[in-house]
Amino acid sequence: MFYSLLLLAYFAPNLNPVQWTLTGTPKQLVLHASISEHYKLYSLTKPKGGPIPLEIKFRETNYVPAIHPTQPNPAHQLSGEVDFTIPLKLIKPIPAEGLQLHVDLRYQSCSDQICLPPTRRELEVTLHSASH
Amino acid sequence: MKLQTLLLAATIAATAQTRSPILLELFTSEGCSSCPPADRLLESLDQQPVSGADLIVLGEHVDYWDGSWKDRFSSPAFTKRQWAYAKYFGLSGVYTPQLVVDGQSEFVGSHGGDAKSAIQKALMSQKHPVTLKARSDGNTLKASVHVDGLSSKGATVFLALAESQAQSNVTRGENAGRHLKHIAVVRSLQAIGDITNNFEKELELTLPKNLNGLRVVAFIQDKATGRVLGVAQEKLSCSIHCSCSLTSPPI
Question: Other C-beta atoms within 10 Å of B45: how many?
Answer without folding.
Answer: 27
